[in-house]
Amino acid sequence: MFSWSYDALSAPAASLFRLMSLHPGPDLPLAALASLAGTGVDRVRGLVRELARAHLVEPDKPDRYRVHDLLRIYARERCDAGETAAVREAAAHRLLDHYAHTAAVADSHMGSPWEPLAITPPPAGVTVHDIGTQEQALAWFADEHAALLAVVAQSAAAGADRHTFRLTRAMATYLDRRGHWRDFADTAHRALDAARRWGDPAALAMAHRLLARASIRLKRFAPAGEHLARALDLFEQLDDDYGRTHTRYALGYLGVLVRDRAQALDHTRAALELAERGGYRNWQAKSLNNIGWCHLEFDEHREALPHCLAALRLFEALGTDPDGHAHVLECLGRACSGVGEPERALEHYRQALALCKRRGNHFTQASTLRFMAAAHQALGRTDAARATLHSALTMLRLLGSPEVAAVREQLSALPAAAVRQPSLGVPCPPCGINCSSDGVGVRCSRPSCCWPY
């Protein structure tokens, strides 16, 4: 039955049907199909419509198509029989180039803390998806999440080491912010293996650092320390001050997590000195805030304030790192709460949440909501604290975080709600305006606020 539809196709449509079997993802975006075919988007759109009329593909979202699993198997059989190995290899390489180039462009809109990827013109026959804003970048990463993971696995299996590394690096910020930490770790492992085969010391140092970040998120602190130590050794050999700065900062961050105050402050102060010497103002701001965060984690709230305030002034002047800006606002909120100023703390938390929401940073959103709930509770606003904790719980469930249990404990420690009925006066965390609450969740009355409760 498939052959009847296939045999009725025009030669170009039949070729596209065969080549689309090389795409490993669950659905087929038009730009990727154009790259497989080595032709333009307008040309391939007409060919896909022909395939749809023959019921060989199904339209999904705009410019995206799905293929039944059996049809995909049939297409691969036709591809193996009807295309030479050289044609298949060239098409697969164009597909890798499509994802590597598009991911690099998307990452450039994410405000990534990592060293930027070079964005070069794509090779002939490769179409790059049009991405011009952060919102479009987030949407593309979300749509292509499963496909990107499959493409990284495919490139690693094929020994396409440069593609494996570049794809992993380009995905890192998205995976980190969205809490896809197992995917982050899996791709970083592949990037590390690829960098070892490739033999590029700079790529190898970066791969160690990527895997360290993923390991930290998964609370695998011992291997994270080993990867950071190896990265630092490589950056020392390369005489790369920028790489040393980032890695020292990460070692300081890890020191706080393993409750080693001396390690945390020593490495972070070294990062600050390197950043000041090299003029890396963003890392100056991050390091200053890391020192403040370290003091906070050891209940030294007054000592934290000057460092966090200095970091805030730098972040505001730079305007290039909303994630770092959000984190310093969270730290300032904690410092203000610690010195007995919960109202001032709430204002910092609201600003942090607004920045996180715009950046799609779920990780910092969840932690800020928990601190915000504590500030509400300190002010005797039990309903607001409860609603905010439920919001944090929702976010942590999305992240698959083990901290869900801790938030449930926070909720159970609150005084029992009097009557669970709609009420006014509960502030929406990102907006700070009055919202309606049923004692469990919040519904923001601001039309432009799409905060998930």
Description of the structure:
It is a single chain. The protein is mainly alpha-helical and 453 residues long. It has a domain at 2-83: Arc Repressor Mutant, subunit A. The chain has helices at residues 2-7, 11-19, 30-37, 41-53, 69-82, 85-108, 134-157, 161-178, 181-198, 201-217, 221-238, 241-257, 261-278, 281-297, 301-318, 322-338, 342-359, 362-378, 382-399, 404-413, and strands at residues 27-29, 58-59, 64-66, 423-427, 434-437, 442-443. Helix 7 (134-157) packs across helix 9 (181-198), helix 8 (161-178) packs parallel to helix 10 and helix 17 (342-359) packs antiparallel against helix 18 (362-378). Mean pLDDT is 90; it is low at 419-427, 436-443 and 445-453.
Short summary of the structure?
With 453 residues, the chain is mostly helical. It has 20 helices and 6 strands.
What's the SSE blueprint?
Layout: H1 2-7, H2 11-19, E1 27-29, H3 30-37, H4 41-53, E2 58-59, E3 64-66, H5 69-82, H6 85-108, H7 134-157, H8 161-178, H9 181-198, H10 201-217, H11 221-238, H12 241-257, H13 261-278, H14 281-297, H15 301-318, H16 322-338, H17 342-359, H18 362-378, H19 382-399, H20 404-413, E4 423-427, E5 434-437, E6 442-443
Helix pairs in contact: 2-4, 2-5, 3-4, 3-6, 6-7, 6-8, 7-8, 7-9, 8-9, 8-10, 9-10, 10-11, 10-12, 11-12, 12-13, 12-14, 13-14, 14-15, 14-16, 15-16, 16-17, 16-18, 17-18, 18-19, 19-20
Task: Compute the average pLDDT.
Answer: 90
Q: How much helix is in the residues? A: over 70%
Quickly give the CATH architecture of the domain at 2-83.
Orthogonal Bundle
CATH homologous superfamily (4th level) name of the domain at 2-83: Winged helix-like DNA-binding domain superfamily/Winged helix DNA-binding domain
